[in-house]
């Protein structure tokens, strides 16, 4: 059975979606709990990419004219905090 992707704020994400989920960086749980209004954030919680600036997410590497996607998206820095769509009212872009 495929693993269900669950974002702490959005809920279940369509498994066909290419949205990436991110764990909370080590030592950042308390800080993130203050930022995210919804109670219950834990170390096991994950947030999807809708809550981060696109510039904070590493999706791959530009090599000349080609974009080589990373095998696994990751957050660029340990200090990144979620800034977008924190109330769960996702707007599509
Ligand atoms: Zn989300």
UniProtKB/TrEMBL annotation:
<keyword id="KW-0479">Metal-binding</keyword>
<keyword id="KW-0863">Zinc-finger</keyword>
<dbReference type="Pfam" id="PF05485">
    <property type="entry name" value="THAP"/>
</dbReference>
<feature type="domain" description="THAP-type">
    <location>
        <begin position="5"/>
        <end position="91"/>
    </location>
</feature>
<keyword id="KW-0862">Zinc</keyword>
<dbReference type="GO" id="GO:0003677">
    <property type="term" value="F:DNA binding"/>
</dbReference>
<dbReference type="GO" id="GO:0008270">
    <property type="term" value="F:zinc ion binding"/>
</dbReference>
<keyword id="KW-0238">DNA-binding</keyword>
<dbReference type="InterPro" id="IPR006612">
    <property type="entry name" value="THAP_Znf"/>
</dbReference>
<protein>
    <recommendedName>
        <fullName>THAP-type domain-containing protein</fullName>
    </recommendedName>
</protein>
């Amino acid at each position: 059975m495929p693993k269900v992707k669950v974002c702490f704020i959005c809920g279940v994400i369509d498994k066909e979606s290419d949205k990436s989920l991110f764990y909370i960086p080590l030592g950042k749980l308390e800080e993130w709990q203050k930022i995210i209004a919804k109670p219950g954030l834990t170390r096991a919680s994950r947030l999807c990419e809708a809550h981060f600036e696109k510039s904070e997410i590493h999706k791959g590497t530009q090599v000349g004219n080609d974009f080589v996607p990373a095998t696994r998206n990751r957050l660029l820095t340990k200090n990144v905090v979620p800034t977008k769509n924190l109330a769960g009212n996702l707007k599509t872009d």
